[in-house]
Amino acid sequence: MQLLIAVVNYRSAGMVCDVLDSIAEEVRALGGVRVRVGDNGSGDDSVEVLSGHVQARGYGDFAEVLDLQTNAGFAAGNNRLMEGPLNGPSLERPEFVLMLNPDTIATLGCLGALLDFMRANEQVGLAGSQLIDPDGTVQQSSFRFLGFASELDELMRFGPVTKLLSNYRVSAPQEGPDPRATQWVAGASLIVRRSVFETIGLMDEAYFLYYEEVDFIKRAADAGFECWYVPASRVIHLVGQTSGVTNKDDANRRKPGFWYETRKRYFITHHGGLKALLIDVAWIPAYLSWRVRRFLQRKPDTDPASYLADHVKHGFLTSRRLEPARIPRIEPDPR
């Protein structure tokens, strides 16, 4: 098997059917590709709908639907789909794994572009597609790791500060058609070389939703693996259609508590408790400076509801003691 594609569903069976339809032609043309769809305890008819779609469209030669029964989070759902094949018999282990979001539609050739790039660049451990809106508008898909400076820039939204901290901005350059090295890529379409899993394990299941791919790619970077952005692989991304957390049409939607908790986990894990606390403290005046300027300049309010109150609640009024990491290990290929 050259490629395993993992798709986690949670109450979005119709969209996952569209994902399967979008990749079916290329999957069959490539050969050696297996698709595993896992239902994360949707509690509806998702398993029946997905299984029926696979049977009706004749996708059974490359796709299977698994009932994961409980919703343990996005990281855990992907892990359940990947760990069996990655720990399987040597000749059946996939060379690469592609984690594909349920709110995506693959364009023809996107899978082959990723595989060609990875095979031509053996030093690269992970790579991400160029994500686009349905109208072709390119989404930001290439990023720098989050830190103190990037938080200040994102919160203050002040031209001179942004210019001063331009090398620390979360959004990394991605212009042009050529692949480029980056620190991390969006997890909506993320291909990973098997040796990465064998070195660092799977994703940390202590992350429920959000920041899990940033943590995974940061651990891979710390282990010496390169991450690249590959614009030749284009994937339509219907942002926030499944999670409901990020929605371009409802920017003021309040973020759920788990978003703040996973953010805190990421900063404490990769920056240490003291620096993470300093980042949370600095967050408040940086954000308030923007709110004052926004009011005086009469700019539109695009911040999530209760943003400051929720930051204080989850940053200071809840425990900063982390749940231990839960990272399933992958046994190295004995060959």
> Oligomeric status of the shown chains?
single chain
Mean pLDDT: 95
Fraction of residues in helix? 40-55%
Q: What is the H/E order?
A: EHEHEHEEHEEHHEEEHHEHHH
- Proportion of residues in extended strands: 15-25%
Radius of gyration: 20 Å
Low-confidence stretches: none
- The counted number of beta strands is 11
Query: In DSSP terms, counting alpha (H) and pi (I) runs of 4 or more, how many helices?
Result: 11
Q: Tell me the span between the first and last alpha carbons.
A: 15 Å
Structural class: alpha/beta
What characteristic shape results from the CA principal axes? globular
Largest sheet: 9 strands, mixed
Features:
335 residues, alpha/beta, 18% strand, globular
Record the SSE blueprint.
Layout: E1 3-9, H1 13-30, E2 33-39, H2 46-57, E3 63-67, H3 74-86, E4 96-100, E5 104-106, H4 110-120, E6 124-132, E7 142-143, H5 148-156, H6 159-164, E8 180-182, E9 184-185, E10 189-193, H7 194-200, H8 212-222, E11 226-237, H9 257-271, H10 273-297, H11 307-316
Parallel strand pairs: 1-2, 1-4, 2-3, 6-11
Antiparallel strand pairs: 4-10, 5-11, 6-10, 7-9, 8-11
Helix pairs in contact: 1-2, 5-10, 9-10, 9-11, 10-11
Short account of what is shown:
With about 325 residues, the protein is α/β, with parallel strands linked by helices. The protein has helices spanning about 15-30, 45-55, 75-85, 110-120, 150-155, 160-165, 195-200, 210-220, 255-270, 275-295, 305-315; strands at about 5-10, 35-40, 65, 95-100, 105, 125-130, 140-145, 180, 185, 190-195, 225-235.
